[in-house]
Amino acid sequence: MVKIDSNTSQATAQAGINIALVKYWGKRDVALNLPAVGSISLTVEGLGTTTTVRFSDELDHDVFELNGAIKDDLRGSRLLDGVRRISGETRFASVSSVNSVPTGSGLASSASGAAALSVAAWSAAGLSPESAHKDARFLELVRIGSGSAPRSLLGGLVELERESTQVTQLLAPDAWGLRMIVARLTREQKEVSSRDGMERTARTSPYYDQWVQQHPQDLEDARAAIAARDLEKLGRAMERSTMRMHACMMAADPPLRYWKGNTLLVADAVEALRRKGVGAWYTMDAGPHVKILCAAEDEGAVLGELGHVVPADDLLSVKPGPGAEVK
Ligand code: DP6
């Protein structure tokens, strides 16, 4: 924590986006934002959010700025209310965030944003960010921002457990030479938020109960693949979880489809790579972008093949990265 003077206290935190391998889709408690299923993700380096929180007695309300523009942030204010309640901090805060990913387009900026905000606010309020990820009160606040955000608190491969809602690191960032190639397929905001999409799916999809019931098996397969460093097994588990989640939401009423035409072109290119013997597997979340998991040594082959369907500027290769930290 940096004390500037007696009237302000501030901290800055950085968090990377995380990409789900075994997906979270659906809530068992909407008010507390408790997930209906567990999930496993990879936190990545170089794409994420940097946030500075500054509590000041010169403010009479919380002020949020994202990428230089002032905006309302109800979830952010709720999160800060929680930090104030726990810490005894009474002042309002100015919050300034910079995202290095397009906001609201299905590239998980809400997760890195909520993780960075929570860690910065916790720290600026004088609470210790060390081991905060094990503190149920802290996790509850992080979840207000986004159900997938607790996963960005830790680096590398991370599991968010359904019952306990605790996060655990399954493998450190440098323990396995993985790459995620991000094919950015739009800069537009999505029309239906994950939150609304999950609610619609749970309410109207005839496949939702099956999705929740079979989900533990997907987690188990992915956990075993990670423990064995078996990339093919992990890639297949990731694609399976991806397709099951999307099948479930596509069966909602009205149907929910985040894919665009180029989403399938990229999936085709990944399958073509596999036919040539290159180990690469795709995943899509609540947006049209495709993220491709491969071994570090296959990065060039994957980028080469994808270059036929996606402009080079929209392809980005990222490594496993660290968890959220105070800067
Ligand atoms: C498709 O965490 O954004 O990316 O909890 O409602 O804020 P809320 O949803 P959010 O949903 C992420 C959904 C997903 C899959 C995943 O990341 O596990």
What does this protein structure show overall?
By secondary structure, the protein is α+β, with helices and mostly antiparallel strands. 35% of the residues lie in helices and 27% in strands. The protein has 8 helices and 15 strands. The strands form 3 sheets. Strands 1, 2, 5, 6, 7, 8, 9, 10 and 15 form a 9-stranded mixed β-sheet that branches. Strand 3 and strand 4 form a beta hairpin. The mean pLDDT is 95. The site of ligand DP6 has 16 residues, from helix 2 and helix 4.
Ends: how far apart? 9 Å
**Sheet with the most strands, sense and barrel status:** 9 strands, mixed
Backbone structural class:
alpha+beta
Q: Which ligands, by name, code or SMILES, are bound?
A: ligand DP6
Binned, the helix content reads 25-40%
Give the strand content: 25-35%
Query: What oligomeric arrangement do these chains adopt?
Result: single chain
Helix-strand sequence: EEEEEEEHEHHEEEHHHHEEHEE
Q: Which stretches of 5+ consecutive residues score pLDDT under 50?
A: none
- For the residues shown, what is the average pLDDT? 95
The gross shape turns out to be globular
Number of strands: 15
Rg calc: 19 Å
Count the helices. How many? Answer: 8
